[in-house]
Design goal:
Layout: H1 10-20, E1 27-44, E2 46-64, E3 67-73, H2 78-94, H3 119-122, H4 126-143, E4 148-164, E5 169-187, E6 190-193, E7 196-200, H5 208-221, E8 231-237, H6 239-252, H7 255-259, E9 280-283, E10 304-309, E11 312-313, H8 320-326, E12 334-336, E13 343-345, E14 350-352, H9 359-364, E15 368-375, E16 385-397, E17 400-404, E18 409-413, H10 414-419, E19 421-431, E20 435-448
Parallel strand pairs: 8-15
Antiparallel strand pairs: 1-2, 1-4, 2-3, 4-5, 5-6, 5-7, 8-20, 9-10, 9-14, 10-11, 12-13, 15-16, 16-17, 16-18, 18-20, 19-20
Length: 450
């Protein structure tokens, strides 16, 4: 197997671009990427599977009379590159014209973003990755033995190169590592289960023992869960839950879908959707952060963007295509789904502005409510309606955290939740150096219990 340094992705891209430049096209781009990934899967009593994969390929997007042709190859041989180019051009000549297509971005300068590649992750072996996972499991066992497990570790190292007909020529290299563990204990008919995770650019930022210890402690806390009555109560979202709430909104204000009126947030630009103390920043330029980079997937410089300011949606998150529909500048949020050709849009490092409360104060001021420590919001993207389970949470009674809850569902509309934000905490959780999510208290939410 060749090392990353020995793989030449620049020459094949330049070769394809040279061919395309002679084919009377309106626009084109060529992207090649090489990646190496490791994954360790944990299931049952320990490691189930350890896999190392490499991926190499080149993709072409060609535009003719606003028609798009896409083709890709997992080979960088000259004859395969030529075939890929011809296919993309052939598809473009017969494709339906897209009236919304305005072109491709031109070249721009961007300051280098430091700390995006960790040599330790790049050279990580399956054996060493397995040892780290075993350390995580051992940390769980040190708290309490006898758990059944799910989870694992993932690590990746990628290098990409993009060239466009408009003069963009950018390279990127990045590493990432993630770890998660889900221990489940049984006491007769009672079950205690929870999870903990982390992800980062570099290996030294992941504390595997801490992940295991916290997962075990949280799992033990889930023993003795009880059903609660249906009703409408206040809810406090810890960062593991508030992150899902915020991500669901930023996904709904990103890219083609929002500007074409296909999401529940399409009419929210310039509108007050949350209290004045609620603001969200998206910043893809933070050194060493998991979602940072000098350029986005189209070669547009990433930058700091205030998405929600004092409760008002200030901007959608754009790639070049969606920005062109509204006649605005792209925000540097193009997401290229590998070399296969698809380019979408989405958030980078999301940071919710901290508030003035503490979690303890939020709980103490709640007569009856729910503390949601693990729930995922999965709304209908078009309508905004959602129905979710609280996977882990606690009843709050008279200002105190009581027993864990079970079989509890919530429902409603996403925009109602943002309007009902009552408090944002001053403390929270930073993930991957770039994300920050506080605790968020909502005035009310519909609960379906017993």
């Amino acid at each position: 197997m060749k090392n990353m340094e020995e793989i030449d992705i620049r020459s094949p891209v330049e070769k394809a671009a040279k061919m395309l430049s002679k084919m009377n096209l309106d626009f084109f781009d060529v992207y090649a990427a090489y990646s190496r990934s490791l994954s360790i899967e944990v299931l049952g009593k320990g490691i189930k599977e350890a896999v190392s994969r490499t991926d190499l390929g080149l993709g072409v997007r060609a535009y003719k009379n606003k028609g798009l042709g896409v083709a890709y190859s997992q080979s960088l041989k000259t004859e395969d590159i030529e075939t890929t180019v011809r296919k993309a051009v052939s598809f473009a000549t017969v494709a339906q014209p897209d009236p919304h297509f305005k072109g491709m971005p031109g070249p721009s300068k961007a300051p280098k973003v430091e700390g995006l590649c960790d040599p330790e992750v790049a050279s990580l072996s399956l054996d060493d990755a397995g040892k780290l996972v075993k350390n995580m499991i051992e940390a769980v066992e040190n708290v309490r033995k006898g758990a059944m497990y799910a989870g694992g570790l993932g690590a990746g190292h990628m290098k990409g190169f993009l060239v466009t007909s408009t003069g963009v020529s950018v390279e990127a290299e990045k590493t990432s590592v993630s770890a998660a563990i889900v221990p489940t204990y049984k006491e007769g008919d009672d079950i205690g289960s929870s999870s903990e995770y982390d992800y980062a650019i570099s290996l030294k930022e992941i504390d595997f023992e801490k992940i295991g210890k916290q997962a075990a402690e949280k799992a033990i806390e889930q023993f003795g869960s009880e059903r609660v009555e249906s009703g409408i109560l206040p809810i406090i979202l810890t960062p593991e839950s508030s992150s899902s709430l915020v991500f669901s909104l930023l996904g709904a204000i990103s890219g083609e879908s929002v500007v074409k009126g296909r999401t529940y947030a399409s009419g929210c630009l310039g509108k007050q959707i949350a209290p004045q103390f609620f603001s969200v920043v998206d910043d893809g330029t933070i050194p060493g952060a998991i979602s940072s980079g000098a350029f986005d997937g189209e070669g547009v410089p990433r930058r700091r963007v205030v998405a929600i300011e004092k409760g008002v949606v200030k901007t959608f998150l754009h790639n070049y295509y969606s920005a062109g529909i509204l006649g605005v500048e792209p925000t540097g949020h193009a997401v290229r789904g590998g070399y296969g050709g698809h380019v979408g849009a989405g958030p980078t490092n999301v940071q919710v502005e901290h508030g003035d409360s503490t979690l303890d104060e939020m709980v103490a001021e709640t007569k009856t409510g729910i503390l949601a420590t693990n729930m995922i919001f999965t709304p209908n993207t078009v309508s905004g309606e959602f129905s979710s389970t609280i996977d882990e949470g606690f009843l709050i009674k008279n200002g105190e955290k009581k027993h864990p809850v079970k079989n509890l569902m919530v429902g409603g509309h996403m925009l109602e939740l943002f309007r009902d934000i009552e408090l944002v905490s001053k403390e929270g959780r930073t993930i991957g150096k770039g994300y920050f999510f506080p605790n968020i208290k909502l005035k009310q939410i519909k609960l379906a219990g017993k």
